[in-house]
Amino acid sequence: MLRAGIVGLPNVGKSTLFNAVTRTRKAEAANYPFCTIDPNIGIVTVPDSRLQVLQKIAKTGVVIPAAMEFVDIAGLVQGASQGEGLGNKFLTHVREVDAIVQVVRCFEDADVHHVSGSVDPVRDIEVINTELLLSDLDSVQRRRERIAKEIKRGDKAAIAEDVVLAKLEAALDAGKPALLVELSAEERALARPLFLLSDKPTIFACNVSEADMANPEGNPYARQVREYVNTHLACEAVVVSAQIESDLVDLEPDEAAAYLTELGVEESGVGALIRATYHLLGLQTYFTAGEKEVRAWTIHLGDTAPAAAGVIHSDFERGFIKAETVAYGDLVASGSVAAARERGVYRIEGKEYVVKDGDVLLFKFNV
Shortest CA distance to 363 belongs to which of 313, 329, 328? Predict the structure, then answer.
């Protein structure tokens, strides 16, 4: 299961947001730096309104959504790459995740201490990104030193790797994340063993006050974050209120909906954040639907039908024969599988078929 790590400076709302995302109280949330030391891990279900629609069509009482892992990582401070704060321990935890959710404080509150003494989201982003870049730069330089002797001996693999490392070193030294360095697929494969921190897909969570959630565009700090990450990092920013989400954790769905309505908020920001992180990881969903259950299955963009079948069981992929499929929209418009067949939108696909998000599939296999 792929992991998204929640990172940020101390006291920006990481642990509160983690508790909201995972609907638990696993992470201690306190008003002092480093209240999180060891990372907390939680399984998160991906909100998807299509499941309830399919449930009615399939006439089943069992619905199983897609899931992913979120990891609450200790706060990072300036100098982490040189051992400040939790230093290398923090960076190791970041290295182990597949994507980064960077929480940025976008609210004023004199009662909540800020490690830099004031609220400045762009400065905070630059502090964290600088530490990730410095750590990566050190990793690249050390690797180049280790393969120097092989290069002198004329080792072709080492020479090819060094060409890639030189590109990365120049970019990192100029403050450019590894993710934005133009590399071919072959070059990226050579760089992958380094597990560079700045090469991880990143999304920014603008943590605003409860009062700002009804009109997030009115928050000047959130606007600054959006403009900055769009311009400099080619990333997406999502607005959330960790405090509101924390209040929702212990409420039943109907109570939570009523509470949000009272605040003038249409949807929980956490739902949007989870979906955005899911897509950030290059994931998409297909469905199986029958009387037994309706279930969302997670695959990567570009996966073929046999690979999608293998997510259910390796035998499905090994003995794949065909996939009976109908697009979600076509099934809903038809009202049933039988009606979809009559309309000609229920298809038979083979091994080369690339599964699309929302496909409803039934696999035929033989082993």
Answer: 313
Please work out, in degrees rounded to the nearest 5, the angle formed at the alpha carbon of residue 244 by the alpha carbons of 242 and 248.
Answer: 110
Question: CA-CA distance, 198 to 60, in Å (whole number)?
Answer: 44
* Residue closest to 244 by CA, chosen among 19, 7, 4: 19
Element (H, E) at 273: helix 269-280
SS3 assignment, position 14: helix
Task: Return the beta strands (E) in 248-351 as ranges.
Answer: 283-289, 294-300, 320-327, 347-349
Sheet holding 202-207, edge to edge: 40-45, 67-72, 3-7, 99-105, 202-207, 236-240
> Which pTM was predicted?
0.81
Query: Cα–Cα distance between 21 and 169 in angstroms, integer?
Result: 36
> Which residues sit opposite 185 in a β-bridge?
none
Strand 294-300 to strand 320-327: parallel, antiparallel, or no bridges (unpaired)?
unpaired
- Tens of pLDDT along the chain (367 residues) come to 788 999 888 878 888 888 888 875 444 444 334 444 456 888 888 999 999 999 999 999 999 999 999 988 876 655 544 544 444 566 778 888 999 999 999 988 887 777 777 899 999 999 889 988 998 999 999 999 999 999 999 999 999 999 999 999 999 999 999 999 999 999 999 999 999 999 999 999 999 988 888 888 899 999 999 999 998 888 899 999 988 888 888 888 889 889 888 888 887 788 889 999 999 899 999 999 999 999 999 999 999 999 999 999 999 999 999 999 999 999 999 999 999 999 999 999 999 999 999 999 999 999 8
